[in-house]
């Protein structure tokens, strides 16, 4: 799910014209060594915090059906996580960095969700809303100054972006539907050592004849066979 959120953000920023103007969008950690190797205008979207939202944690299972309406699996509810990114712009001059950061800010604040057309993988399959909060106050996220200190770099202008996305639940396949009747075989043998054929106790509602040695299927609408009472001999 995390890499799918990354791809959604990359596509969203790409639509703002960054990539068309030669600006690279990366997801690297903006350490001091990394910054020294940059030679082209770059927007860095660094993921530094992942936390589950326990309030939205569900329970139980949901049923999954195929195109024909048959039950094929059961799936636990998705779990929701907050992914917090540090977005920075890198160029040769501070003015150019601020211009890039302004373009990124205008793109991100224009929407509160990642558009469905930009979602891939499990995010697209679930069809749930992926919320986007730009430059908001995330009280539970580490401060930007602490992040820069941990990275060993100097503090610079940045945007905090939080994405709330679902992690797909565990899917368990169910057994296929029953298509054949129950068959009982006995250990009795005919003369010559040949085994007795099996006997079908339940019947399929079909006009196809049963396999050789088995009782044929019951015709649709035909009355069920009378059950013998205890002690009654078979005619």
TrEMBL record:
Residues 189-235 are annotated as: Disordered. It holds the Pfam family Pvc16_N. InterPro entries: Pvc16_N (IPR025351). Residues 225-235 have a biased composition (Basic residues). Residues 4-180 form the Pvc16 N-terminal domain. Residues 189-205 have a biased composition (Basic and acidic residues). Signal peptide: none annotated. This is Pvc16 N-terminal domain-containing protein. It comes from Streptomyces glaucescens.
